[in-house]
Amino acid sequence: MVKLKINGKSVDIDVDDSTPLLWVLREQLGLTGSKYSCGIGLCGACTVHINGEAVRSCIVPVSSLSASQDVVTIEGLSSDNSHLLQQAWAELDVPQCGYCQPGMIMSAAALLNSNPDPSDADIDANVTNICRCGTFNRVRHGIHLAVDINKRGRSS
Amino acid sequence: MKKERLNFSRRDFLIRTTTAGAGFSLGLYLPLTSCGVQTAEEQTLSEVAEVNAWVVIEPDDTVIIRIARSEMGQGTLTGLAQLVTEELECDWSKVTTEYATPGQSLARDRVWGSFSTGGSQGIRGSHQYVRKGGAVARHMLIEAAAEKWGVTMDECRVLNSVITHVPSGRSTTYGKVAALAAELIPPVHVGLKDPKDWKIIGKPVKRLDTINKLNGKQVFGADLMLPGMLNASIKACPVFGGKLKSFNDAKIRKLPGVRAVLAVDDNAVAVVADTWWQAKTALDVLPVTWSNGPNAKMSSASIAQMLDEGLSADDAFVGNKNGDVKKALQSAVKTVEASYGYPYQNHATMEPMNASARWTKERCEVWCPTQNGEAALEATAEAAGLPATQCEVYKIHLGGGFGRRGAFHDFVKQAVAIAKQMPGTWIKLLWTREEDMQHGHYHPITKAKLVGGLNERGDLVGLHMRISGQSILASVNPKWMQGGVDMFTFQCLLPEGDHAISYTVPNLLIEHAMRNPPVPPGFWRGVNVNQNTIYIESFLDELAHAAGKDPLEFRRKLMDKHPKSLAVLNAVAEKVGWGKAAPKGVHRGLAVCKAFASHVATCAEVSVDNKGKLKIHRIVAATDPGYAVNPQQIEAQVEGSFVFGLSALLYGECTIKDGAVEQKNFDSYPSMLISEMPKVEVIVMPSGGFWGGIGEPTIAVAAPAVLNAIFAATGKRIREFPLKHVDLRSA
Lengths: 156, 731
Fold this sequence. Notes:
- The complex is a heterodimer of chains A (about 160) and B (about 725).
- Chain A has helices at about 20-30, 75, 85-90, 100-115, 120-125, 135-155, and strands at about 1-5, 10-15, 45-50, 55, 70.
- Chain A is α+β, with helices and mostly antiparallel strands and about 160 residues long.
- In chain A, about 40% of the residues lie in helices and about 15% in strands.
- A 5-stranded mixed beta sheet of chain A has the order 2-1-5-3-4, sandwiched between helices.
- Chain A is built from 6 helices and 5 strands; from the N terminus they run ββαβββααααα.
- In chain B, strands 12-13-10-20-17-18-19 form a 7-stranded mixed beta sheet. A 6-stranded mixed beta sheet of chain B has the order 2-1-6-5-4-3, covered by helices on one side. A 5-stranded mixed beta sheet of chain B has the order 15-23-22-21-16, with helices on both faces.
- In chain B, helix 4 packs across helix 5 and helix 9 packs parallel to helix 10.
- Chains A and B meet through helix 1, helix 2, helix 3, helix 4 and helix 5 of A and helix 6 and helix 16 of B.
């Protein structure tokens, strides 16, 4: 039995210790927003936050986590699509097929957690998710737009 | 006039996307009769009216537009809804969509036409009858209102779902008359709007499927959960054509969650377990013996040898010919010769192949991401051993398609083959990335030898192009071949049509020596335009250089009779500032082509530093698709096309060793990242009068424009790919 804190809620999971967090989220908790694509921690489709930092959940054994760590998935980013990135993504119609986008958004959200106004170089260094449809330029634009929306909100 | 009310249940329709705030969340539900899943949505079923096959209207004026083609990111769902809305004259803010099912299509005499979503055909292959569907529904709705009021139709006007009787000023809405309209006989003849009167076609409206892609609610095939569902992981013989010999399940039978270890067809083994992770990890340790078969010694080298032989073989199919190329080359003042090659590519959709199936003796149902619902239904029926009328396929948005999920439903057949061994239970089969890499239907491999002749003025007087390599049709659909010739091989090199060559060359011969290695080929986004444009556009640059001419001027001279291709080329040249100095250290390259009926051109600006590191700074891309249904989605497709085309150029190759693909995941088959993405400036320049494709054409010009810019920067002409193997330091 493993105790976890997912999207603010404590959960007890009965699962083999070596099971990656991704598969606990998807198959034990029904949180399928985090995607399987490569399974080797490369593509980023499975990205979630652990204590605010972006983590590739497909290579994190659930046994390495404790109940004191905050795990946030795309489902927990906001309850009403109101996260700045969700607003910006909707404004720019960023997704194409959409399969990589939960991971893309979680990577970008973690970047904004640590760096509220990232440069293009910061984005290049921190958003390393694969998107085969090719949404990169709208992703970049979307991160900058989210920063702008935030600034507008604070100045009004 | 009234018709018999159709006994047609909307329960058979599955997935609905919505505009933001239209009141519905994603509805994913099953026929009540088949598994007892009921959602809140079903409670409103009795109140909705199917006006015709394309249009369903609810009392609150919500318009549900039925879509037969598949949404895989390319935006076709929104574009098709725009086409229907244009003629229907309904309120766009109340439009939602749902997929028609192939089983219903079969039962209703293919009322929605083809389900095939490939070849950039989604809109250009269906715009006529889809718009007509909207126009017919509009006519019936107005007729219903007129009948209710006892007036004539020609006294009524409609705007944004509101019908007004002009003389009296009375008005009603679509939602109020839809039930009555549904009982009328549809008109046989309805006119379509003149394009100059379009209000929503041509507008950059937002996609209808965005919101659920931002919060994890969009359900893909890999995410599907159905009552009592078990999960399967599969491994097929890695060697092409190899078979399953045996497996020893003693070691894994007792592992937690494992329910069954099964042979699938004659070449694969699957583990079925409570969770996919249990199935996958059990399969990882299952001892399996394969019978590798006749291809066990195949390698990239043996394939290359086969293709090299074809470059100079006597026999070849002719794709385009005029004049006397032999004579022209003999009398040329200068000739240039070069050989190119293009490797196998994997589609590598972000969502690996998957399908969910339930089989009983009476019925087989499948949920899957597919680019062709009808083909998925055929595959289901075949694997199930049941007539198609006793099968159904429920489509789900695809996590990428790129051609992998259209002509091939191997994953569907496997899911059904597993489900058939466990009757009555839903089985979700999900491939690993490794399985996906090794069991693709790959972009075909070809080589090309080109010889061009120049006269004393440096004009092109003759061009001979010999392609050697794999035919997609010979493997996938021999019925489409013409007398043994695969005309698809000549895409963008043909004398005329959707894939006509963009140049007039006085003496021309383009031919194909078909050489088919036993690696399964498939339609890969862009198809044969990808390599053919690299060959022809790189070689034209070589000829321009040999003639001492500017690559733009050299091309222009051959394009008098190709005004639309010339127009897109001129547009990028002007925007990029061709002929004016580029920023220091930055060099430019051009490419143009006609593909999928659209005209596209690109100019790339690159630099290569003294260590050979390439940076692609800026791309200017122009597209003339005839009619542009949604310009902002065209921009998205054009930008995305550079990621697909340049990922292949920079990194993409599948190599063969001992009969199997060597690459297994994104570590050995990388894809471009955001840090490598150039700025892209898109020019959408619809000239009207035709319907061209959007999702694929630009991929073709991405690579050659960059290659020509690399030549300008370094003096290096690259003829074998991907670039990751090439030292780009200046020659």
